[in-house]
Fold this protein.
Amino acid sequence: MKNPTRQRKIKLYVTVITFVALVAISFSIRDEILDTIANIRTATLWPIIAIFPLAFLNHLALGKLYQAVFRILGDRFRTRSMVRLSLELNFVNLVFPSAGVSGFSYLGIRMKGEEIEPGKSALVQAMRFTMLFISFQILLGIGLLLLALVGRVNNFVILVAASLSTLLFVGTILVGFIVSSKKRINGFFTGLTKVTNRLIQIVRPKHPETINIKRVEKVFTDLHNNYRLIRNNFTELRRPILFAFASNVTEITSVYLAFIAFGATVNPGAIIIAYAVANFAGIVSILPGGIGVYEGLMTGVLVATGVPVAVTLPGIITFRVVSMLSQVPVGYYFYQKNLSSHTHL
């Protein structure tokens, strides 16, 4: 039986850590917030206001994606609960940067209350990224085509788009290859766990097995079994891919609106490629929300496609700040609500 006092202490610690992380990320983007306030005086307001409902549509699409994947695995959830889950995960990945690992961990803990085993939660989160990556590749092709129509495709842009497409394609195939075999998945992740335990043991000599290998084997055995279930229902993946595509389109539209707010006419193809590159880097970045990395890469790609820096920076900064303001407070609210209402932590 769980100790209520210990549970309360854990929740208090998590709440304090979360609040500190939220303050830290707010402090880290203080310059961007001030720049946005300064720039917004010269901007047209309606495109900026329109970013807020688009943020909701983005999470609605992601919520429907989660709902569709869970349904393939035999679990049914209401759309509202999955939209809320998407907002929570967005908040967690933003304030606890770990190259996407935070989202996987939180989803496993979060879905325990719904009696979903960790292996299934891990697969659902992996499918989310896989669907987004697939739609990235479709969008990259559209972006190159749009740039080609106005003669803005140079060798650098082609190299960036081709490299990213190849990386996403090979990565997807490699993950599928590992997960498709019970022997391969257990061998790969058990070996990875042993290496991780040895590294941790350097810091904690008295703990040779910080991560329980048997527990890891069970999680990834469940992951493999659920993967087989999805593979047997492959045709049903069309809906999640469409929702992933819709999620990406809403964000790209938001970026485009940020440029419109400053009276800039930017080729949508340039925004698509810059968005794809910046978001991929943001996923693997260990910095909060990919701050610095996201803006730097997006600026570099847009400049390479012929967009002036004077136009690029105000648009990107405004999009980033408005996007965070429209999602982080709501995500924090749902995160704290879940933390206070569940006892499985």
Remarks:
- The chain has 13 helices and no strands.
